[in-house]
Amino acid sequence: MLLTRRIEFSASHVCRRPDWSEAENRALYGEEASPRGHGHNFVLEVTLEGEPDPVTGMVVDLKAVKTILEQEVVEPMDHRHLNAEVPPFDRTVPTTENLAVEIWRRLEPRFRGSPARIHAVRLYETEDLYVEYAGL
Amino acid sequence: MPGSDQSRPEVRLGRRYRFSASHRLHAEQLSAERNREVFGKCNNPFGHGHDYVMEITLAGELDPAAGRLVPLDMLDHFIRRVWLDQVDRRNLNLDLAEFAALVPTTENLALVAARRLAEAWPHWFGARPARLEKVRIWETPRNIFEVFVSSLETQENSRNEIVIESRRQGS
């Protein structure tokens, strides 16, 4: 079965490539390319997959899940500037797509050997835009 | 290998839009009484409206150097031209050709949206690795309908079969 835990963090970013012209950056990233940056209240949904333990009735200890999400996502990213403070976004563009993939890469190893396997992450930049990644 | 820096991760992008429209659920093939039974309040001859929410899902291999599946301004422009301009503040029964002979339930509305978007998609985004995967429409926060673009051809075929079958029975 699947279960989903939701967390929130707020961060600023700039989506632009230094090797591109202003026009090229605007064409791909639109307003997200504004050079001084802007912020979002990101909402992250992490979906885990596993079977309930016959005794506890739980797939996984949700307190442990919360701790992993706080260590890997909230502490390094909440109230931070992603480009300036959160590698690898000093080198790659912190779009919602790249951020979702990076969050997966941080979380996936933490659930290896756990009773719950990570199934997918869904990152909402706003309530009208999200990116989902399932490790493929 | 998943997770290696050279790989192109397969990501999904969901984007939500809103439109308001009116409709009346009424099937010409059914009696007035039967229409009232089947559609209830939705059969009101004057129609009624909803604030619809539509979510489209794209899928594709992401180039991490760009980090963007499609330019969102272009996606928004596409949805506005191909869909929102045709349905927002419109009467679905009268303003959409498909509903001249088809009941504009949100099931059918989701199918019509998916067909129109899928048909126009290659002209706008054919050169890009992103494909249109799914259309989901909320008629109200409680009624939600979802169509996978990959299922459209199958549904088209089965619908044709039904039409052929009913012609056979009629003849």
In short:
Chain A is an alpha+beta fold. Chain A has helices at 22-29, 62-77, 82-85, 96-107; strands at 2-13, 38-49, 80-81, 117-126, 129-133. Chain A is elongated.
Query: pLDDT average of chain B, as an integer?
Result: 89
Model regions low in confidence, pLDDT < 50 over at least 5 residues of chain A: none
Radius of gyration of chain B: 19 Å
Q: What profile does the largest beta sheet of chain B have?
A: 5 strands, mixed
Helix content of chain B: 25-40%
**Architecture (CATH level 2) name of chain B:** 2-Layer Sandwich
Query: Would you list the SSEs of chain B in sequence order as H and E?
Result: EHEHEHHEEH
Total number of domains of chain B: 1
Span between termini of chain A: 20 Å
Largest interface: A-B, 28 and 21 residues
CATH homologous superfamily title of chain A: 6-pyruvoyl tetrahydropterin synthase/QueD
> Which percent range describes the beta-strand content of chain B?
25-35%
Q: Which residues of chain B sit in consecutive blocks of at least 5 with pLDDT less than 50?
A: 162-171
Annotation field: number of helices of chain B: 5
Q: What series of H and E elements makes up the topology of chain A? A: EHEHEHHEE
Quaternary organisation: heterodimer
The largest beta-sheet of chain A arranges its strands as 3-1-2-4-5
Describe it.
The complex is a heterodimer of chains A (136) and B (171). Chain A has 136 residues and is of the alpha+beta class. Chain A has a single domain (2-13, 41-133), classed as 2-Layer Sandwich (Tetrahydropterin Synthase, Chain A). Chain A has helices at residues 22-29, 62-77, 82-85, 96-107; strands at residues 2-13, 38-49, 80-81, 117-126, 129-133. Chain A has a 5-stranded mixed sheet. Chain B has a single domain (10-170), classed as Tetrahydropterin Synthase, Chain A (2-Layer Sandwich).
